[in-house]
Amino acid sequence: MSDDLPFAITLPVGSSLANKTGNWRVERPVYVERQPPCTTVCPASEDVQRWLFHAEEGDYESAWRGIMEKNPLPAVMGRACFHPCESSCNRAQLDEAVGINAVERFLGDRALEAGWSIPVTAPPSGRKILIIGSGPAGLSAAYFLRLEGHDVTIYESASLPGGMMRYGIPAYRLPRDVVDAEIARLVDMGVVIETDHPVDDAMGAMEDGGFDAVVVAVGAQKGRHFDIPSGDASKVMDAVSMLRDFEAGDEPILGRRVIIYGGGDTAMDAARSATRLGAREAIVVYRRTRDRMPAHDEEVADALAEGVQMRWLTTIRSADSDRVMVERMSLDDNGVAVGTGEYDELEADSLVLALGQDTDLGLLESVDGVDLHDGMILVDEHQRTGRPGVFASGDAASIGVGDRTLTGAIGQGRAAARAVSAYLRGTEPESDPPADPASFDRINAWYYSDADRTMRPRLEAARRRSTFDEVVGGLTADDALFEARRCLSCGNCFECDNCFGVCPDNAVIKLGTGAGYEFNYDYCKGCGICVSECPCGAIDLVPEQR
Amino acid sequence: MSAERVPVRFYQVGSFAVGNRLVSADRRNAQSDPQRANSLTSGHRACAGCGEALGARYALDAATRVTNGQLVAVNATGCLEVFSTPYPETSWQLPWLHSLFANSPSVATGVAAGLRSLGKSEVRVIAQGGDGGTADIGMGALSGMFERNDDVLYICYDNEAYMNTGVQRSSATPGAARTATTDVVGEHPGNVFGTGKFVPAIAMAHEIPYVATASVADLFDLETKVERAMSMRGARYLHILVPCPLGWGSASSDTIRLSRLAEETGLFPVFEAENGELTGSRTIRHRVPVEDYLRLQRRFSHLFTRDGAVKDEATVARIQAIADRNIRRYRLSEDDS
User: Fold this and answer.
1) Could you tell me if residue A177 is inside a domain?
2) Can you give the residue range of the structural domain that contains A498?
3) How many domains does chain B contain in total?
4) How far is B244 from chain A (nearest CA, A)?
5) From A446, A482, A528, residue closest to B252, measured CB to CB
6) Are residues A148 and A207 in the same domain?
7) A508 in contact with chain B, both atoms CB, cutoff 8 A
8) Above 0.90 for ipTM, yes or no?
9) CATH number of the domain where residue A22 is located
10) Three-class secondary structure assignment of A312-366
11) Which listed residue, A158, A277, A281, A496, has the most CB atoms within 10 A of its CB?
12) What is the pLDDT of residues A163-206, one digit of tens each?
């Protein structure tokens, strides 16, 4: 009992900090990191949210470096990717998906303007890797192998590198100067590309050059043909050859009325290119319905907007010099297209077949351990063939990771690079670790400002019909910042201070910018307000262990 | 209202969240500051998820900041007093005084007068209490403080019943709500409609310099109002809705959600008034029907079936009519403002 206490006071003032209310708790909050849907569905496994985080602050270089951890061609992908990230974006359930692809393109272009580069910091490994094919899969593998310090050489059969990025995707979707600039950046990193270097024996090429491993990424360059009875004078060509010839400077003679047979993205590319090459009418003939077309919706919509006509539920039976015979189809109960016996004639100066593509697998024929199946090189989930040291990626391979798109090829290239490095070390390659999903039901939408998606300015359909100028424009810096800031940061803390502010017990400790928060379990009563009020669902409430 | 702050262009969470790494520190809520006063510190014995503990810290931290800590608080009897000061412990980080249930406005008047006579008018006085101490037991003293225009900010933390003594009805308890003294029996179960009082309107009738309402769901708005109140002299009144998980029968994690729903339904009008005139209203952002708010609370569970469908449509319609009237009367909708 102290003498200096005031009159009639028997105990000194104590602090409630002595009362550890944490022992009331039956559930405890814990910070979690969940995988946002954009990353889950990205065929190249890009950490979209993580690079958008930097873009939100206007730190475009860090954002670009974030993309480069998974994808060496942001300016290309920002144009040609079908952005499944946006289709899966949780923000779509609030207003509209975040324009991830447009921001990626903005960052890719900004990097090319500023000349940002990625340094090779790994010491030289002394190992030599051969990559056959300089399309997206080959370039991706080359980039990731180069970062590991390996010597990388690409053999390319064409006279310019890029594969389908140059010879398949029309220039109005992917300008060639962008392809050239992104490839030049890889060459500056030390990737050697030998063009006009076809390979007909992969094992021989590997042995002759003294390579330690080979990644086959030759793509699917052969347009699939289909036996249509046709007169001698009829003009039938395949879409891949048409697009390639055009790119190589051989403008194909299509005439005024062109029929394109097929329903994939290549069919759309061919139809839209035909209108630019002077065809007055381009008609896509597809045997099933629009919703069953394999082409991406955006491509179909763009083609229709440019005046391309579509005849769904129709097949071609025969072709002549100035007309084709078509049969109307109907779908049976199982969704299979069957002929109705009703025929029709269409005027046509030429017929373009866009029925899929095959790979020329001669370079791996009868190699021990390499299985060729259904026109593809069989690989496992690490892009490995059955023969040690031989890997395959992109359209030439069966699907190891990702899907059969440009972006999938980037992901397969990275997976192959990882497997090659593991092979050289004599270890098993790692897979991306599985992660819990950050679903929309975990989002507290109240906290996000309302804002519509910034639409990319589009050239007038009338104008783009006659030119190969790029159709989709880029974002301004302001719009890119705005778009990046629409990201909800699903499942991962973005330091909004809500948990720190809403705790009735001051039981959240703020660790400072970039360091996040931690709970003070001495006082946390486990009420769960922080969990409900976390905008992005980065806190779980778990039963207390007793 | 909160528009007095700089309007944001677009910053991911705008001004809705407590902080925001994309804006400078002066445009975040004061609660995002690691150096905040924590006027009501950890270890207090409020129930898990207590809205009153949260509201008191929000309001007093804001007042402490704008007065540079030159602040005295006088507390009425009630939950806030009991859970914060079990002898000899205290959670308060500012000079704090408790006398009786009914007399906190008078005590605060005396504190202000004493400080003035000591020449310490820079030290500001806040009186605070629950809805029982304000609307019922301290009403006379409060009205006296108002009509004399004493230099005190009175803050009422309204959780709509006497929660400390076991959830008895107060004159702030809404119609149909079940409490220990308004049981779910008879023709009109729960609290009767047409009784009770809305103290902010009574305060406005005194034509005191400043009257405002706020909730724990809108921190920017609450802090702005405390700052506004502390920039004035004379009698001021702030009425803060603070959900009570115990008395309302709600999940402890739903405290802020319920505050938000009370605002977004229109059942709790958020506005401010000067000298008896309405000067600003918080407009509803996403209007929702009252059942969204009622369904989360066990005190209204007799209005719903077990699977959450409306059972007593007439009563729910009556509550909806109250919300609709608030929206007209306090201009809570953008169309009406």
Assistant:
1) yes
2) 16-33+493-543
3) 1
4) 12
5) A528
6) yes
7) no
8) yes
9) 3.30.70.20
10) CCEEEEEECCCEEEEEEEEECCCCCEEEEEEEEEEECCEEEECCCEECCCHHHCC
11) A496
12) 999 999 999 899 999 999 999 999 999 999 999 999 999 999 99
